[in-house]
Amino acid sequence: MEHTAGIVPTDRIRHEVSRPPRALVERYETLPDAAGLVARTLDQFGIMGTVPASDLTPLKPGAVVVGPALTVRDPVSPVETGQ
Fold first, then answer.
1. Are 14 and 69 in contact (CB under 8 A)?
2. Residues 6+ apart with CB under 8 A from 22
3. Considering only CA atoms, which of 34, 38, 18, 17 is closest in space to residue 26?
4. pTM higher than 0.85, yes or no?
5. 30-81 tens-digit pLDDT
6. Residue 63 class from Cβ within 10 Å (0-12 exposed, 13-18 middle, 19+ buried)?
7. Measured between alpha carbons, how far is 36 from 55 in angstroms, rounded to an integer?
8. Domain coordinates of the chain in residue numbers?
């Protein structure tokens, strides 16, 4: 396990991201409140710790962003904290 970027082992860093079929993305784009719908569905499956749709307000009214999401961990490094 080699570490090259902070504390994340290089074998845990993905360089390729699988993408859903375009038709599926287009179906999500037509939903009136995709963020709310997905949040409620995750709640129903008992998946906790998600960001509520009310916290994900669009930067541009009416804007829609649909697609895969990546989790990024950005720990504070000892250099930045002076430790």
1. no
2. none
3. 34
4. no
5. 888 777 787 788 888 988 777 766 776 777 887 777 887 777 766 665 555 5
6. exposed
7. 10
8. 1-53
